[in-house]
Amino acid sequence: MLNPSTAKSVIDHAMFMGADFAELFVEHHHSGNVELLSGEVDKVSSGIDFGIGIRLFFGHKVLYGYTNSRDEEQLKKVTSLLCARDKRDQIAAAGPLNLSHLNDKHPMSEPLSRDQHVADKVDFLRHVDQRIRAESEKITQIIGRVGQREQQIEIFNSRGLHVSDTRHYTRIAATAVATDGKEQSTGFDAPGALTGWEFHHDIDPVAMGERVARQALTKLGAQTCPSGEMPVVIGNGFGGVIFHEACGHLLETTSVAKQASVFHDQMGEMIASPVVSAVDDGTLANAWAQLTSMMKVWRLSIPSLSKTVSSPRLWSIIWAA
């Protein structure tokens, strides 16, 4: 996507301006979306976004800028603007670029760039819609969506790193609204994976429709939740979301480095009850939140600002992001 000689020239320019580390993040993002509203096609859209991010380190200070131009002079102009206040004599030199080839851990056969499969997606969503509608006359509205995207990534940095990767995402979502004339409630399901449109072969539209309708109808007749303190049982899956929002952001390097996190001075200390156990397995093939080799290479390639916080059976490594 970006000529390596152009990338090398821009990185050399940043190092000449006194940066300790320089990185270019190139992305070409292709998206395609289909939406049905109560059985009728409501939206079909697609788009392409392109951009190049430039990240520079001056000690622990991080500067970032971006452009949608591949032009070498434009990229150098953005770099010069970033360096304007921190310009200094050159301290380090950039290494030669070495292209690294990564193994594809996510088998995929129907990418968005080959075929958007609009008719197939509409047909699948109509099957979901029909099943939801068949569950009850109390269902008043149904929304079905398929979102598919394809990210092409290329990274260059002053340590000689040059890698590329293509990431495929597919998500199928359905929402049902139920009402009894006085109250209304919703049901929702949205499975997704790091793969192409072939993902839909693993999803039964009838079962999906039943789940969404059952959620909406069950909540419609549910009693008001009592108030007060009481034991809470958190199921697998969504418990990770709760942990992420309550603690995950506070474990990010940007918060820890600025001492804006309550965990900033708790290196090696227990941060949870001894009964707490959290596991984040980022090695599962085609899993939506899988940590790809590409991401590991990118994050490990930057200057080390990482910290480690521990609790029983829980080690969280916070990479500079």
Quick summary:
It is built from seven helices and ten strands.
Task: Please render the helix and strand layout as text.
Blueprint: H1 4-16, E1 21-37, E2 40-58, E3 61-67, H2 72-83, E4 98-100, H3 118-135, E5 139-157, E6 161-179, E7 184-189, E8 192-193, H4 205-220, H5 238-248, H6 253-257, H7 293-300, E9 307-311, E10 314-318
Parallel strand pairs: 4-6
Antiparallel strand pairs: 1-2, 1-5, 2-3, 5-6, 6-7, 6-8, 9-10
Helix pairs in contact: 1-2, 3-4
What does the model show?
The structure is a single chain. It is globular, with a radius of gyration of 24 Å. The protein has helices spanning 4-16, 72-83, 118-135, 205-220, 238-248, 253-257, 293-300; strands spanning 21-37, 40-58, 61-67, 98-100, 139-157, 161-179, 184-189, 192-193, 307-311, 314-318. It has a domain at 234-321. It has 7 helices and 10 strands. By secondary structure, it is an alpha+beta fold. Strands 1, 2, 3, 4, 5, 6, 7 and 8 form an 8-stranded mixed beta sheet that branches. α1 packs parallel to α2 (72-83).
